[in-house]
Amino acid sequence: MVTATAGAVERYLDAYRAFAANGASRAPAWLRQLRDSAIARFSELGFPGSKQEEWRFTSVAPIAETEFALVPRPTPHAPRERDLEPFLLGDAAPHRLVFVDGHFSEGLSRLGGFPPGVTVGSLAATLARDPELVRRHLGHYAGYEDHPFRALNTAFLEDGALVHVPPRLVLEQPVQILFVTTGQGRDGPAVTHPRNLIVVEREARAAVVETYAALSAGVYWTNAVTEVVVGDGARLDCHRVQRESERAYHVATTQAYQGRDSIVNLHAVAFGAALARHDLRATLDGPGAHA
């Protein structure tokens, strides 16, 4: 199944070794094992090619051939709030999580006023504060065994949005999750691997707006995975807007896991990118579940 050159795959193996040796080494053992397993699987799969049925009409050669690099923290070109105005929903979604080049920006985010027990924040921060909540769900739904891009996302899993709504609670207002890319890494075109986890427990209700946007016209790559867990009788409305640079690459997966009599409504709109692919998957694990 390995269709890209050995050099293209080896670049990401080298990048992973550097990533794992730096800040990622402080992660809990279960997360380090998940990352190690994912990069090993990517090494076996390589980049998909046109001989694979799922990718027959999607050439990812430009992604494999471009030398993308992770953007270190702090982000070299941090935006100001006025730079985000074209992408913000304003009063329609007063709660927002903002990530710049894959890193959470507390200064640009607007959080607070949630019912007791609701968690909305950075995945990395929640992992430090409530590791059991993250461990219980992260990586259990969006499998990477047959999907090299999900494997890469899992290997470089570091941050993203976490939304957790306990049973029978209702979030009255939507939460916007905004990923903006400056496209200006220190070592060439940037790549980010956003990982989102949205959990709506039994008979709860929430709405989330995922937005991916460009702050420049440059070449970069967004490789995103969102895991959605909706309990029995719960409802989640997901709105997803992709507004990447016209020279960018966007590969994403949304994987939903639903209980009995649950509802997931997903509205996906794509405006940008030179190449964009969004895989949608749902597991309906109970009668009456609706996607």
Fraction of residues in helices? 10-25%
Task: Please outline the major beta sheet.
Answer: 8 strands, mixed
Q: Classify the oligomer.
A: single chain
Number of DSSP-assigned strands? 14
Beta-strand content: 25-35%
**What is the SS-derived class?**
alpha/beta
Low-pLDDT residue spans: none
Tally of DSSP helical segments: 7
Element string (H = helix, E = strand): HHHEHEEEHHHEEEEEEEEEE
Distance between the termini: 32 Å
3D shape: globular
Mean pLDDT: 93
Radius of gyration, in Å, reads: 18 Å
Description of the structure:
With 291 residues, the chain is an alpha/beta fold. It contains 7 helices and 14 strands. The protein has helices spanning 6-21, 29-45, 61-65, 81-84, 123-129, 131-137, 148-155, and strands at residues 69-70, 95-100, 103-104, 119-122, 161-165, 175-181, 190-192, 195-200, 205-214, 220-230, 235-243, 249-258, 263-270, 275-284. Strands 1, 4, 5, 7, 8, 10, 12 and 14 form an 8-stranded mixed beta sheet that branches. 44% of the residues are buried.
List keywords for this structure.
32% strand, alpha/beta, 6-stranded mixed β-sheet, 14 strands, 291 residues
Short description:
The protein is an alpha/beta fold. The protein has helices at residues 6-21, 29-45, 61-65, 81-84, 123-129, 131-137, 148-155, and strands spanning 69-70, 95-100, 103-104, 119-122, 161-165, 175-181, 190-192, 195-200, 205-214, 220-230, 235-243, 249-258, 263-270, 275-284.
